[in-house]
Amino acid sequence: MLKLKPLIPFLFVTTLISGCSDNEVGNVSLGVFTTKDIKLVIVKDPIVTGVSCHIAHIEANLDFADPSDTSIACRQTGPITLPMINAIDKSKSGDVVFKTSKSILFKSLKVRRIYDAENKTLIYVSYSTKEVQGSHKHSLSTVPLWGNPVWDEVNIIKANNE
Length: 162
Fold this sequence. Notes:
By secondary structure, the chain is an alpha+beta fold. The protein is 19% helix and 41% strand. The strands form two sheets. A four-stranded antiparallel beta sheet has the order 1-2-3-4, with no helix packed on it. A four-stranded antiparallel beta sheet has the order 5-6-7-8, with no helix packed on it.
């Protein structure tokens, strides 16, 4: 006979850690006999507020760590202005715009924004990190500034700096 008493604290902590977040927009079960679900969340870029990213990641409700599998799709959903572009980190490593825990200990899902100045494109990469070793699993999405009013403004600044 299965004793539930020792499992109660474990189930409580697991439920607390994996609780529904404010940015969750969907949940897809991977089957009746599994505790894994695909969680769909929306993330707004905190600086380039005209960009929204949808992230799909696996949540394993009764495991200590979620799988590193993730996918991302980012689109322009509002205005992108020159002050926003000027405010972002233009280094090769860019900025982390979203981070969430994927385990009880030291594993995170991150989304990083990198600016491709030559092609005037925002690049968003989602990936998992572990303190001991990183994961090779990642996903990429881009938001080109082409067709956006900021495209011409960026070109004017570039021409003046040359």
